[in-house]
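Priority: low. Protein: Mitochondrial carrier protein. Input follows.
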Amino acid sequence: MRYRGEAVTVIREAQAYGMWFMAFEWMMNADAARNGIARSEVPAYKVALYGGLAGEALWLGSYPLDVIKSKMQTDGFGENMRYKSMRDCFAQTWRVEGMRGFWKGIGPTLLRAMPVSAGTFAVVEATMRAIS
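Result:
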């Protein structure tokens, strides 16, 4: 049995987390360079801010893929199946809902992304500083 939505999930994960870490690392390194300090000296509030902004970048860059993943994973089976493939799901979403169909629910996702990612990066960075 195939896993419905597996391909789009793998694509979304690779793209989203690549964006997440790239955005965070870029902001941290840019701050350290701009202020002439070591990365480990970037203040905790900035670490949290950059983590939160990285979370926003993650979702802004990957949300349409997440919508398609969710549609495919909640699709029926057999004669109740609406989408034949990931490509078909994209095409039907575009045809029926237009561009808006790829962004439904983005508001709550972005509201959640900032504090979750800020906390994640703040804890990870604090832990890395403590053990080094």
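The chain has a mean pLDDT of 95. The helical segments are 6-35, 44-73, 86-97, 106-131.
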